Request: fold
Amino acid sequence: MALETRQAAEITEKDTSYVLGTYKRAPFVLVRGQGMTVVDAEGREYLDFGSGIAVNALGHADPEIIAAVHEQLETLGHVSNLYHTAPQAELAESLCQHSFAGKVYFCNSGAEAIEAAIKFARKYARTHDGPDKTGIVAFSGGFHGRTAGALALTAREQYQAPFRPLMPGVSIAPFNDVDAIRAFVGPQTCAVFVEPVQGEGGVNVATPEFLRALREACDEHGALLVFDEIQSGMGRTGRLWAYEHFGVQPDMMTLAKALGGGLPMGATLLTDEVASAIEPGDHGSTFAGGPVAARAAQVVLKRVSDPAMLAHVEKMGALLMGRLRELGSPHIKDVRGLGLMIGVEMDVPVASVVQAGYERGVILLNAGENVLRLLPPLIVTEKEIDRLMEVLGEIIPH
Reply:
């Protein structure tokens, strides 16, 4: 057995022995990455069309992120949120200037951003309408996280069943069903949580009519509209925020994944109106918005908000979707998405396609049993798309 193979086997054995098995891992050990490529312990290269689940928007080992993080670590690494720091303040200013928001709450992950939004929505409703306005509406196919509150908004039986009873007061409405909205959003609703583009649920794009109807229903009943852009935000759809495609602004928005450039970083963006209900002590986090992660996030936000980058994402997304539709497999039922957030729905399970991709040096993702999900770094070029299509032409069933 070669040295590299033995080392990979040892790492896999240690992982299996000591790391709690909450994930089914791919059958290799990744050791380094550069740009669009990652390399495993045996020296095999993989073209990365998953971006660490939409995290590595600028690819692997981006020099500007590395330089910013290195400089910040040498200057000030961590002080907690008991103290002001420039990187956090400057990042918050940039996020507000580039969005609808007046305030930002920082956290460490997408699920934490959702938990914060739940608390802020209920505090806002309690402040303005009293203690009984606590209802939350979420949608079929949605995924908002696996922590206790977020899990109650994530209507997946296999995720929820072992952990009931869940947080009460949550109703699950049908996604993209305008006619059903009035049956679910009412006077006791404090917030509606929705993904403008569902990620884990199969890359399902909301219709403009649906999001407009949600905005109208929330306004009518004094409920807050919360957009979960943890996966669709930060330039992924060809706009900085997916909500820009629809002409509908939320009252709150949750972010994570690409925001931190690979470091743990999440955020909940709020209007000043919602923020006015939140006081010191209502929520908190020791690590949130720390100087190092905030410096990395500044780099990412600057780069992905560049009009040239967003135009590139739109161009590459249109090219990739067009090429996917030309594959001609009878097993492909739909190709959908926005920008570089793309789903290929098939009438067969896609697990074998993901595995075959590994064997040919391409990392792919699934979104449920029958949807192949493509989330390449936003720096992807036509050359990498050509290679992907060559591989997909070999491994997609015909």
Summary: The radius of gyration is 21 Å.
